[in-house]
Write a structure and sequence with these properties.
By secondary structure, the chain is mainly alpha-helical. It is 54% helix and 3% strand. The two termini are 37 Å apart.
Length: 123
């Protein structure tokens, strides 16, 4: 799966907290980027054969399964980006970066904070 770089403070419990449309456009561009995998076809096929054997499936079944999973995740990610863009285009509500960062930084501590409230509107 390609590496998608993301500021973790923008994500909390599966919800994207957009700062502005520029951030969202960058994330969407990364989601549409094709990443090159440096592996020969022979190496890839050997790995597929090995993984299919471990999964007790044929190479075709295994490859179809992982491709379906990859496409499903990519579709979900792009759909969520479009939902977040729609919220941004409507002017919010948004959560302040500082509030999200403080919340995320409190995870796993004795003083874990509740999820911040979206209270910023730009329109």
């Amino acid at each position: 799966m390609p590496n998608i770089l993301c500021d973790f403070s923008k994500i909390a419990k599966g919800r994207l907290y957009p700062y502005n449309k520029t951030d969202l456009n960058k994330v969407e561009a990364m989601a549409h980027t094709v990443h090159r995998i440096d592996v020969t076809k022979e190496d890839l096929f050997n790995d597929l054969e090995q993984m299919a054997g471990l999964s007790h499936t044929t190479v075709d079944e295994f490859a179809t399964s992982i491709l379906a999973q990859y496409v499903s995740v990519q579709k979900w990610q792009i759909d969520e980006i479009h939902k977040a863009k729609a919220i941004a285009d409507q002017g919010g509500p948004f959560v302040a970066h500082e509030d999200v960062a403080a919340w995320v930084n409190s995870w796993g501590t004795e003083k874990e904070l509740p999820a911040p409230t979206a209270d910023i509107f730009t329109k």
